[in-house]
Each structure stands twice: as structure tokens, then as C-alpha cells.
Amino acid sequence: MANYKVKSQDLVEKVHSMIRLMILRNQLVPGQKLIQEELAEKLGVSRTPLLSALSKLEKEFLVESLPRRGYYVRKLSRQEELDLFDIRLQLEPLAARRAAANITPKGARDLMTRAEISPKQRETMDQKSFCEYDYHFHSLIQELSGNEFLHKMTSSYNIISLSNQNIVTEFDYSIGQHLELARLIGEGKASEAESLMEEHISQARRRIVALAD
After folding, report:
1. pLDDT confidence of 170, banded at 50, 70, 90?
2. How far apart are CA 207 and CA 169, in angstroms?
3. Model confidence at 149, in pLDDT bands (50, 70, 90)?
4. Confidence bin at 174 (pLDDT 50/70/90)
């Protein structure tokens, strides 16, 4: 019985991770109704682990359950988008500072590798692929901070923020900032990394405000 419970929980975690990735990649888009039978078939699972995974995703604000209507991918209002960026503005500069303070040679190499984009990748990059690249770069900084609570909190915020993003990203500029962040963190320059991360998030927030004007 104990082994069965572990395997069942592992399956819920796998389904949970797959749906998160599908939302990040816009394979499931904001406002889309999640047809449970279709999603269960697509993932090759029964509805029991699917419902458990959806319940977890609802607590992370990635999906929402509407009475008598079912589950939907969460669609943010403009104010909710700004509210999320306000949270990111408080947490991600802290993550950058902590990552720089705790950086190891391996961590520095991994972060620079995550930040770098080859010319071939750049040629084929679109908004969707940039969002996935952006998420994994920021996620690694949060992981390198050594603060598990911060990492878990910001992970879901970033996915829902990116999935709802309607602005066209300036790829070259953002990638350049990522490379500079990787350098500063890799060199242990905590204050500089914190300041750049604050500016990096602020710029994205300003683009959302400008879009509303």
C-alpha cells in the first residue's frame, strides 16, 4: 500500500509539471477551458491524478475552477499582471542578490550557459520560445539563491506572468541583460546584480503600462 501511494503521488507530480510546461509554452492558453477527458487522454492518465494536479495548479494561480463550468487556464486582468510584476519586483532582486552571495564556480557556469543564445537559436526565436528561455533563466537564479521558499513562490508567478504576456519582447536587449546578470552573479557582485534585476523587471512592467495607454 505504501509503495502504491508513492507511485500515485509521483504521477500527480508528473501531470502537474506537464501542465505547467504546456501553459508556459502556450499549448494551453489563458482563458482556455480544460476539457478533462481530452487532457487526461493526451497525458495518458486517468482523471484521478489529473484532478489532483489541477487542484495544485489552482493553488498556484495557474488555473481557476468556475462553479458548474470546470477548470480554465487563468487569464489575468491588466491590473493583475501589474500586481504580479510588483511581487516579482520585490522577490527577484532578492534572488539575484542571494544567488551572487552564494554562487559557486559550477553555478556561475550553469547560469552563463542558460543565458547564452546561439546565433542559430536567435534566428528561429519567437515570443513563445523566448518565454520558455526567459522562465528557465530566471528560475535558475531563484534556485541558485538557495532560498527554496522564494524559488517555489516565484516559479508559478513567472509562468502565469509569461503566459499572459501580450507585449512583444525586445529579444536582443533582454538577452543582453540576461548575459550581464549572469556575469554579475557569477562574479559575486551582489549589489550590482540586485540593481540590474530590479531594472530588468521594471522595464517589463513599464511595457505593460505603456500598452494600456
Report:
1. confident
2. 9
3. very high
4. very high
The reply to whether 177 and 87 lie within a common domain is yes
Secondary element (H or E) of residue 195? helix 190-212
For residue 52, the one-letter residue type is: S
What is the CATH number for 163?
A: 1.20.120.530
One domain, residues 97 and 69: no
120, 26 contact by CB (below 8 A): no
Verify that 104 and 203 share a domain, yes or no.
yes
What pTM value is reported for the model?
0.85
C-alpha cell at 27: 499549448
Amino acid (one-letter) located at 10: D
Q: Where are the beta strands (DSSP E) in the chain?
A: 63-66, 70-73
- Give the domain range for residue 19: 2-73
Q: 200: burial class by Cβ within 10 Å (0-12, 13-18, 19+)?
A: buried
